Amino acid sequence: MKWWKKFRRKISKKYKVIYKRGPSMVAGVFLGVAIASWVGFLFFSGYPVVQYIYYTVYPVTSEKLATVLVEAQSVDSESMVKHKSEQIEIQIEPDWLPERDVSLPGGQYLSIPAIGVDTVIWEGSTEDHESVFRRGVWRVPDMPLPTEGTPVIMVAHRFGYLDWTNEYRRKNSFYNLPKLVEGDTIEMIWNQRRFNYKVDKVVEAEQIDSYESDLILYTCKFLVSPVRIIVYANRV
To answer: How many independent structural domains does the chain possess?
Structure first.
């Protein structure tokens, strides 16, 4: 076994310097890149799962979207009285409505070219809002229809669900709503009538602070934050 001891002493002397110095800088850089790559991979691959679990097990964001609207409406009671009186006027004199265009599709649709939204507008009760959110954009039922008065309020999730493709999320959610700027256009088709709007302002707040606009779009900023993205637009 002398040859084995001799071989071990030879190897020990050969790599003694390396053992003292430790890993080289190049090795450290490669190790850092490898760790960062794995962390990035795990984050991006797991993010849809986190969204799905959050909305399914703890749907407080969906509830908040509905609750804030109800609270804001009750606080702004004078605006609600105005909405009711406007509805009565519209029943008597609906001449301001866009003419019906039989070349347009029946049903309700929302289009926002600047951010790629091109979706059906879904109807549903406040109690059933979560099932509507799973489809996309929800029109708040306690507020006027586009053919009845203003404001029309549309609400949707930003991040969507695990079974949504990226294309479906872009077209049917409000993920890119914060990218809208003043002057961007919004188009709504409601039972073969075309309504065109222009964005007046985009704000971050915990609730809607004004009902003077013709159209209000509303979504959450983050999954666990009370801050909302609110877009105010008026007809053109």
So the answer is: 2
